Amino acid sequence: MTSTADPTQELAVFLRTRRERLDPDDFGLPARRRSRRTPGLRREEVAELAGVSIDYIVRLEQARGLRPSANVVEALATALRLAPDERAYLFDLAQQRPRNTDKPATTAPEPLARLVTDLSPLPAMLMNHRYDILAWNPEMASLLVDFGTLPPSRRNQMWLCLMHPEVREFYADRELVVREAIAHLRAAWAAHPEDRVLAGFITEFTTQDELFARLWAERDIVLNGRGRKVLRRPEVGTLTVDFEVLMPLQDQDQRLVIYRAADEESQSALDRLCAR
């Protein structure tokens, strides 16, 4: 597993895995060049597509200290046919996107905290880029867990999903929930390589949770800000919620998460939870 503290090593692995997943047939390579024992494109083929030397690709994939320019990153992203989220991740790993130098928020800005409260009766919470829960309303606490009873260091949605003995059992498709969360967490890590708390979380999760370690190693970078979750609560049974993740324009490292019951039965179950 790549060290979570070394973007250069991650850049090398990311480029190699994206090269190896490509199908040579999609590039119209001559048949004589397609006889190969390893999957994907060869390094020399990626070099040709990106307009760089083979030695340059070799040095990048061996993490030998290169920092590609924005133009080279763009050429590599095009050659490897990266999706938009993967392209952004590559730019972050190469440190070629403007960085937010502000320290990660540990408290909710007052207007956003008030908005979370005003969203009742819809369950809502505000998180920073590393999934720390900064504000929540009573409905979200009723649906998941009373965040106020937790130590501040454990008010983290990823930790709750992985480590909390009750919350980790709430999700009917826990692997999908963890997979989608990891995609966001990996993008956040690439954008904030200086965040030691985030790096510490990732180290903790990879060493203590087998599912997280397996999915982190797959390097999925598909971000999902809208979807549906099925929750199992022993008190009221199964309920389904639709979720929306919004990014405040003035606080773009924060995430406003809003849940809505997907059907009348789920709304009834949510109402019973809140009444408790």
Q: What pattern of helices and strands is seen along the backbone?
A: HHHHHHEEHHHHHEEEH
Strand sequence of the main sheet, in spatial order? 2-1-5-4-3
CATH architecture of the largest domain: 2-Layer Sandwich
| Helical proportion, percent range | 40-55%
Count the domains. Answer: 2
Tell me what the structure shows.
A five-stranded antiparallel beta sheet has the order 2-1-5-4-3. The longest helix is centred in the middle third of the chain and has 18 residues. It has twelve helices and five strands. α4 runs antiparallel to α5. The protein has 276 residues and is an alpha+beta fold. The chain has two domains: 87 residues, lambda repressor-like DNA-binding domains (434 Repressor (Amino-terminal Domain)), CATH 1.10.260.40; 166 residues, 2-Layer Sandwich (Beta-Lactamase). The protein is elongated.
What are the salient characteristics of this protein?
276 residues; alpha+beta; 434 Repressor (Amino-terminal Domain); Beta-Lactamase; 5-stranded antiparallel sheet; 45% helix; Helix-turn-helix domain-containing protein; DNA binding; MLTR_LBD
